[in-house]
Amino acid sequence: MSTTMTTDADLKARVRERMTRTGETYTAAREALLAEPPPAHPPRAGTRPDPEDPPLRALVVETDLAADRAVATFVDGDRLRSIPTRRRPRAAVLMHLLLRFERGREYAEPEVNALLATAHEDVASLRRELVDYRWLQRADGVYRVAEEVPARFPSEAQEVPTDEVARFARVPRHPG
Description:
Blueprint: H1 9-22, H2 26-35, H3 65-74, E1 75-76, E2 79-80, H4 87-98, E3 106-108, H5 109-117, H6 123-132, E4 136-139, E5 142-145, H7 154-157, H8 164-169
Antiparallel strand pairs: 1-2, 3-5, 4-5
Helix pairs in contact: 1-2, 3-4, 5-6
């Protein structure tokens, strides 16, 4: 059992709401929330979440200022100054790089590498992280941008920008 202090305000609010509802201690409520699977259907921009699904985080967020600061810190024009080592800034930078792709288009691995190489020479790490966050999907050597924002476990939701839905909606759609 971890005794690490929770830093995500949204998770704290959900833990406190569960404590009020169930009478559990903070630790028990937090562990129960982190053990819950993500909803069966990922949230979509402009739609309401299923009332049966546990609330993971607010879908309507004006902007995640920390994510904007991370992009401003690590991105210099088209290039990355470096790949962030901390998860939250890295996810924000990866979402920024996702804007180089188009939803609805298939990419061969060399095409993905070429797009990412314009930002940083470590294309394998960037490509792997985009797949790990499920923003890029890989099947038989072909990559596609996900059609929907992936469902997130609470622990994973703490890493991605709180305005993930809005940022994902800015990824251009292939005209074909």
